[in-house]
Amino acid sequence: MPISGSVIVKKLPGRKGCKECGFPTCFAFAMKLASGGAKPDKCPYLTSETIAALEDALAPPIKLVQIGAGENAVQIGNEEVIYRHEKTFVHPPGIALLISDKESETKVEEKIKKINELQFPWIGLTLKANLLAPYFESGDRNKFTALVKKIYESTNLGMVLISEDMDALFSARDICADRYPLLYPVTKENLGAAIPKIKEKPTPVGVRGESIEELVPLTTKLKDAGIEEVILAPGSKNLREAIRDQTFIRRAALKQNFRPLGYPTIAFPCFLAKDGLKEIMAASLFIIKYPGIIVLSDFDQYSLLPLLVQRLNIYTDPRFPMAVEEKYYEVLEPDEYSPILVTSNWALTYFLVSSAIEAAKVPSFLCVKDTEGLGVVTAWGAGKFGGDTVGAFIKKCGIADRAKYKKLVIPGKVARIKGELEDALPGWEIAVGPREATEIGGFLPEFTRKLKA
Question: How many folded domains does the chain comprise?
Fold first, then answer.
């Protein structure tokens, strides 16, 4: 558990009225430290040892680790809860596609193409796999480094480099070090030789043990060497053991604040389940409990999309509805003569209305009002989708500069705001549209024809 202000204040010097940290009392400073709003070095009277101890105590119970660079970087860890309903899960697991250097050139090309092209638009988001995992299986170091180079030149994605051969592993690392690949596995057998090479070009490392107990001295030695970008692999032999081990590591980090296990984890459904359907089912379990990276041997659109949707649902904050940005959206490349509709920013509402407009094949502007993720009727009842609020949004969103006709279509279920909205938008004509999104296909073509007549 995070250290509390009452514990922190006991470590402070307690100089009454000095205020040199910028706070009126030591207790106020301690409370700010506990909430993450200040750093220990703000107090000029703390020793370097005390500052280091406080920084360690205040660090997140699960280390934040980044794999990859730029817009394709994958951040994992930094989680705060065991169960999603307690608060929220923060960083969705990276889905990685395994590519063995024993696979044919055609298969390698197919997998690279697959991960580049299998992207799914979903309620204003793009769902996709995140990482590639080149696997040294052939025994030929040149083949492995050639595979890594090919992936590096063909994609901008981060990589999980998998090789039991340390020379091959670090040669591959040198090819793509600027993308911060994960090096896997570091074990008790190769740890001593690996540490100096890791420090030459620091990148994340995956630590593998035959058991959870075996991981503890490995992470401790890495931390003592100044290497903390670590991901854990407990060496589970089957799915039952994997779920047990993942849960144990999570609880040890969050409930006991056991620092040697305070790192994100990785799981390999590709090695645990050889059957394609069983592998996807195992991956589905891992999305819930709890790896930060999930490595698959293969996937297609029919197996990948359900996993990505499940990941989105699990890692959506349950305290807040899914919502899209407040602005006007262009559907099917509208022009100045296209109709204008307005709705709320609940993601499901936006998705249904925009899809209905696309199905009607009528280019339109869809103005999305921020209602804190509420549907139209609920937002109206809460005072977030009334004539005044919608009118103010229409004035500021800039749609008036794009449209030839000042005619706005409102949802039929809130027809009662028509008069109020006309008062809020002088010069605009307000039309009452369908009550349901499914009726837009019948309404919009005829409305557009009359608009342009």
Answer: 3
- Average confidence (pLDDT) over 373-398: 93
End residue of a domain, out of 314, 341, 375 = 314
Task: Classify 23 in phi/psi space as left (phi over 0), alpha (psi -120 to 50) or beta.
Answer: beta
> 157 and 95 share a domain?
yes
Write out the residue range of the structural domain in which residue 369 sits.
Answer: 327-452
Q: Residue 123 pLDDT > 80, yes or no?
A: no
Name which of 244, 272, 187 is nearest 221 in CA terms: 187
Residue of 280, 287, 259 whose CA lies nearest to 84 = 287
* Mean pLDDT lowest among 23-27, 154-158, 408-412, 427-431: 23-27
Average pLDDT estimate for 311-331 = 87
Rounded-to-integer distance, Cα 106 and Cα 157, Å = 20
Q: Quick one: residue 410, left, alpha or beta (phi over 0 = left, psi -120 to 50 = alpha)? A: beta
Residue type (1 letter), 15: R
Closest by Cα among 364, 369, 378 to 350: 369
Q: Specify if 322 maps to a domain.
A: no
Identify the CATH number of the domain in which residue 445 sits. Answer: 3.40.50.11600
In sequence order, what DSSP letters do the residues of 404-451 get, joined into one string? SS-EEEE-GGGGGGHHHHHHHSTT-EEEE--SSGGGHHHHHHHHHHHH
pLDDT at 423 over 90: yes
Contact 122, 347 (CB under 8 A): no
DSSP state of 3: P
Element (H, E) at 343: strand 340-344
**Calpha distance 309→312 (Å, rounded):** 5
pTM, two decimals, is 0.77
Q: Is residue 294 domain-shared with residue 438, that is, in the same domain? A: no
DSSP result, 103-145:
S-HHHHHHHHHHHHH-EEEETTEEEE--EEEEE--SS-HHHHH
> H or E element: which one contains 296?
strand 293-296
Quick one: 280 and 361 in the same domain?
no
Comparing C-alpha atoms, which of 348, 331, 363, 344 is closest to residue 410? 344
Residue 427 sits at φ, ψ, to 5 deg, of: 90, -10
Question: CB of 356 within 8 A of CB of 434?
Answer: no
For residue range 63-88, list pLDDT tens digits in order: 999 999 999 999 999 998 999 888 88
- With a cut of 80, say whether residue 452 has pLDDT above it: no
Structure tokens at 236: 């589970």
d(CA 180, CA 177) in angstroms, rounded, equals 5
Average pLDDT of 415-421? Answer: 93
Identify the residue with better confidence: 20 or 196.
196
Range with the lowest mean pLDDT among 54-58, 138-142, 337-341? Answer: 54-58
pLDDT band at 370 (very low <50, low <70, confident <90, very high): very high
